[in-house]
Structure formats: structure tokens, C-alpha cells
């Protein structure tokens, strides 16, 4: 779970984005190519992946982190199996503006990450912008990231799920995400230390409200040939750390959600009503909150998976980025161990991918893929 207390938050007007990033968090243009480009692994399913991004505004509630705005803005990325990706470019993990901010934010958000030497803007996802969707009505999975992380750090697992026939919606939670580029400006948040109970409660309550709001709006997203057909009768939720906590609370609170996966999130916030929907929970051997995790999970009937020689951020894209940064001499062995664990993360990543995929396949089955070669429609 993200270990943070009093959040330091800033919202910067668009006209001053890069200058403000340099002033607040250091230079944004100092990144140099590291030996060996940072890459994310390809998804394993039979379908290429399409991608669309939206900003949604909830005028029924105020933003708890910026009171008085009269609207809660939420940014989402929709990933889905595509019919073809010809002529549709792969999207970067971060926009140029977001990457400029994260260049300065990285060592503050995750101690041990380098303050320079990384071209964060050059990391490409395997999601193809506005690719036409594969026909068929498909289950929907909602994802909430770890506290302090942007939604894009859950890209690899989401792409893998989408390549196997599901629609995955990555949700940013402005106010406890490192940076979120919105029409109203860039929301920048650095969370540090252990969260006090009131802050953590606000984080989880806000995230659950965000998840339910996004679910309300999915049926009315702007139509386009690129939009997949969502089966809103087959909905799952998963999340990492604070996102895992929020996922379980959303599962308990919303009857539309049929199953959930908790990637090492505490479950000791009360009240948490009982529920009987299927739940899968992962935790790592190296997480320093393991005792609290175990105590908070005791009353839940759920399948549990322990990942050996791993640590908390192995559930995110850091599992792939940190080893490359270490190989380039930009991350120490100690920092790597603290972030993702000392071992090769391949086994942990495979367990999370396969376990999450098979869990949702069992409880939210997707249409069978056509009998064709992998990514034959590219």
C-alpha cells in the first residue's frame, strides 16, 4: 500500500505546465536515453489492443481534495480487444506533459527512482489509439491504481486482460495520483509517509465514489467505431494497494459488480459490509505491512496467493521498468529490492497475470476468440 501522510497537492494551469514542473520538481528536459530503452512487455492474448481516453465530470459532488470546485473530474483509459490496428498508432504510457512532471516527481513518489537520466515520454504501450473494436459484447473490468500512482502504471496487466477479450477501464483518482492531465490543468500530488486514518478514509471513500461514477457513465460514453460494446451485466473490479482496498469496498457496496481482485490492499477500514461475491487476493512476501495485511484479511473468505521474493510494486509496471533501470545503473539493488523484490519478477508477474485472468474468466466469461493466429488482424 502507498505509505503516505499529508498530501502535497498542486493544480497548475495549462499555459504554465512545463515551466511549473521545472520550478516545483526540477528540470523536465534533463532526461537522456538510458542504456536499453524502457519497454513494456507485449500482452499474451490473441487480440491486439485498442485504446481510448476520456475525462468525466461528476457535478453531483465536490472534489474532497479541492473543495469549492463543484465538480469531481475523473480520467479514464478504456482498453479493449481490437479488430485491426492498421493505421492506429501505439500510445505512450505518459503524455509529454505528464512525462515532464514525472521526471521531477519520480524520486519523490517512489524513493529510489532516478531524478534524471530517464526518458519517461518514450515508453510506449501496446494500446493502439482509436483502433476499431472487435465485435461482440464483452465483460468490463474497472481498475484502481495504488495510492500515489497514475492509472497508467497498471497498463501491462490491463493490456493482457484486454488482449484476452475483456474491456478494461483504468481510473485516475486526482488528488492522490502523482500527476493527472485534465482540461482544467494538471493535478500534481506527492503523498509522503503513513496516511493518518482520516486521510486514508477520504482516499478510499473518494475512490469508491469514483468507481461507481465511472460505472454509471460507461453506458453513455461518446459512440464511435472504436468503442467496444460493453456488457454492463458482467462487471468486475480490481486494484492495487489503496486501489485494492477501494476495489473490495466497491464490490461490497455495488450490486452491479460481480467479482473482484485485491492486489495487496488493506481491508481494516470499518464499516465494510459483508458480501458473497467472488474475491481473489494477492500479497507479496517482502511487503513490510504483511502483519497488518494478514490481520485485515482474516474475516474474508477468498482465495489467497503469496508471491515469493517479491515486494509491493511488483503488481504495477515497475515490475518491468525497475530491472531495466537497474541494468542501466540508474537504480540500486537495494532500491530495486524495496520496490519489487530482489528476484527476477517473471514468476510473480506470470502468477498475477494468469491468476487474475483465470479468475475473471471463471466468473465473468468472455466470448471465445476466433480460430486464428495471434494478432492476425494487425
Automatic annotation (TrEMBL):
Q: Where is the signal peptide?
A: 1-31
**SUPFAM superfamilies linked to this entry:** alpha/beta-Hydrolases
Q: Which InterPro entries match?
A: AB_hydrolase_fold, TAT_signal
Q: Pfam family example for this protein? A: PAF-AH_p_II
Coiled-coil segments, which residues? Answer: none
Keywords associated with the record: Hydrolase, Lipid degradation, Lipid metabolism, Signal
What is the protein name given in its UniProt record?
Acetylhydrolase
Amino acid at each position: 500500500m502507498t505509505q503516505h501522510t499529508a498530501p502535497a497537492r498542486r493544480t497548475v494551469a495549462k499555459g504554465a505546465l512545463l515551466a511549473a514542473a521545472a520550478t516545483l520538481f526540477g528540470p523536465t528536459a534533463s532526461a537522456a536515453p538510458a542504456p536499453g530503452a524502457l519497454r513494456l512487455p507485449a500482452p499474451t492474448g490473441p487480440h491486439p489492443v485498442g485504446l481510448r481516453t476520456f475525462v468525466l465530470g461528476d457535478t453531483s459532488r465536490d472534489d474532497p481534495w479541492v473543495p469549492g470546485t463543484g465538480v469531481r473530474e475523473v480520467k479514464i483509459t478504456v482498453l479493449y480487444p481490437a479488430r485491426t490496428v492498421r493505421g492506429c498508432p501505439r500510445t505512450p504510457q505518459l503524455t509529454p506533459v505528464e512525462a515532464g512532471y514525472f521526471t521531477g516527481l519520480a524520486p519523490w513518489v517512489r524513493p529510489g527512482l532516478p531524478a534524471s537520466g530517464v526518458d519517461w515520454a518514450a515508453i510506449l504501450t501496446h494500446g493502439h489509439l482509436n483502433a476499431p473494436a472487435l465485435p461482440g459484447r464483452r465483460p468490463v473490468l474497472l481498475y484502481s491504481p495504488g495510492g500515489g500512482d497514475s492509472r497508467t502504471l497498471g497498463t501491462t496487466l490491463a493490456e493482457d486482460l484486454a488482449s484476452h477479450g475483456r474491456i478494461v477501464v483504468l481510473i485516475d483518482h486526482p488528488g492522490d495520483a502523482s500527476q493527472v492531465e485534465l482540461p482544467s490543468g494538471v493535478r500534481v500530488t506527492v503523498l509522503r509517509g503513513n496516511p493518518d486514518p482520516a486521510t486514508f478514509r477520504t482516499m478510499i471513500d473518494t475512490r469508491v465514489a469514483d468507481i461507481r461514477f465511472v460505472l454509471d457513465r460507461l453506458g453513455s460514453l461518446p459512440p464511435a467505431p472504436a468503442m467496444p460494446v460493453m456488457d454492463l451485466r458482467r462487471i468486475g473490479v480490481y486494484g492495487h494497494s489503496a486501489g485494492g482496498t477501494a476495489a473490495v469496498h466497491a464490490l461490497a457496496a455495488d450490486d452491479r459488480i460481480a467479482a473482484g481482485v485485491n492486489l495487496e490492499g488493506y481491508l481494516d477500514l470499518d464499516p465494510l459490509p459483508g458480501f458473497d461475491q467472488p474475491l481473489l487476493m494477492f500479497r507479496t512476501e517482502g511487503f513490510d505491512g504483511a502483519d497488518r495485511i494478514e490481520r485485515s484479511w482474516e474475516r474474508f473468505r477468498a482465495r489467497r496467493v503469496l508471491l515469493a521474493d517479491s515486494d509491493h510494486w511488483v503488481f504495477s509496471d515497475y515490475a518491468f521498468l525497475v530491472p531495466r533501470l537497474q541494468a542501466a545503473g540508474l537504480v540500486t539493488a537495494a532500491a530495486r529490492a524495496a520496490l519489487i523484490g530482489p528476484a527476477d519478477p517473471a514468476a510473480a508477474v506470470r502468477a498475477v497475470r494468469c491468476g487474475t485472468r483465470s479468475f475473471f474468466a471463471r466468473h465473468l466469461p468472455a466470448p471465445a476468440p476466433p480460430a486464428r493466429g495471434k494478432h492476425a488482424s494487425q
